[in-house]
TrEMBL record:
Pfam families in UniProt: DoxX_2
Keyword presence, Transferase: no
Location, primary (coarse class): membrane
Domain of life from the UniProt record: Bacteria
Keywords noted in UniProt: Membrane, Transmembrane, Transmembrane helix
UniProt membrane topology term: Multi-pass membrane protein
Membrane-spanning segments: 6-25, 41-59, 65-84, 96-114
Transmembrane keyword on record: yes
Name used for this protein in its record: DoxX family protein
Places the protein is found: Membrane
Amino acid sequence: MVISFVLQFILIAIFVSVGIQKILGHEQQVAIFKHLKLPQWFRLVTGWVEVVGVVGLIIGFWLPWVVVIAGLWFAITMLIGAIVHIRVKDSYSKSIPAFILLIISVILSILNFSELQNILP
């Protein structure tokens, strides 16, 4: 499960950083949400969604089945992000990070999917 741990660390590093930036109203994040034609309250919600996902990934080091849920949480978040980038007709260079994080999140959930058997009766 080394690959799973590496992917968890990658997602934690990325999302703790951008999540906190969104919550604190970092200038770049404010500009991005304006560009995406989204209200600033949605930036805050997105930041908290990302921080909650990070907490799930951290808990997943002790309870691996939580990684499946956190991975799907981020996959849905990044799918919405990718759709928003497409909606405003962003270039591929601006859209690809959301797709890459979506793919990493799905892979992480797939790698840990068997852990769900440990909690099911």
